[in-house]
Amino acid sequence: MSKNILIAGKPFPASTDLADSFAINGYNVTAASTPDNSTTSTGAGTKLAPWNSGSAISARSLLIQAETNFGYTDNAILYFDSDYFVSQFPVFSTDVCSKISDTMICGFQFLTLELLNRIQQKNQKCRIIFILKTHPTVCDFAKSSALRKAAVSPASPLVGAAEAAFATFAENIAAISLEHQNLSTLLITGDSQNEFLSDDSTLASWLASTIESLDSAKKESKSVSWTKAGSKPSSGLSLFH
Q1: Per-residue pLDDT tens over the stretch 41-61
Q2: d(CA 83, CA 104)
Q3: Which of 83, 144, 187, 234 has most Cβ atoms within 10 angstroms of its Cβ?
Q4: Which of these, 231, 230, 229, 232, lies nearest to 221 by C-alpha position?
């Protein structure tokens, strides 16, 4: 596999450390940015492409732009950073329902479906890496006195529901990959206390090493299990995370 990678979900500039660290590690990186961003590249060589997460057409355009930049995308990172989303959507109201659905649910689904379409059209292999950085929810706080004493605010029910939707979607795409010759997946999870998810540069270095290890294997082992960031990728069929 080549070293072309697409990063989406956590948009530029929030994804700068992750994207540029991959670029420094020798990857050809295209990072999704917000539609109003006018920057086209970073100093480390990351190419930027606008993405309206609420549009299926924009998901297709993002992949086409990534291919225009470097050729076929053989690794795609879909990053659900709950800490980031909590900071962007602290309000629990009807005003943000549609925006949260577009940003945290539909966008990931549109982009994944377009990746599956490109795999079929090109008849080439692609690995989709789902990263879920969790954040305690209101329900978690209700169950834990330690959390209630912590200096952190819970994710709103809307963000918490979107996090659960992402996890379920990722698990089911991983299940599809078991019978798909050209599709493989990697499910990565952890919270802000995980040293690899607390720093995107560290996360990128570990992921780059993991990807190289998987690429060098004679046959990549497929799994629907979640792997803690920093650990060896799981095997087997457990869905607990």
Answers
A1: 888 889 999 999 999 999 999
A2: 13
A3: 187
A4: 232
Statement: the pTM of the whole predicted model exceeds 0.85: yes
Sheet holding 226-228, edge to edge: 47-50, 28-33, 4-12, 75-81, 126-133, 183-190, 226-228
Helix axes of 107-122 and 56-70: crossing angle, nearest 10 degrees: 50
Domains of the chain: which residue ranges? 31-71
Helix axes 200-216, 16-24, angle to 10 degrees: 40
What does the pLDDT look like over 184-210, one tens digit per residue?
999 999 999 999 999 999 999 999 999
Residue 48 to residues 34, 179, 199, 202: CA-CA distances in angstroms? 10, 33, 21, 21
Per-residue pLDDT reduced to its tens digit, 217-233? 878 888 899 999 999 87
AA identity, residue 149 = K
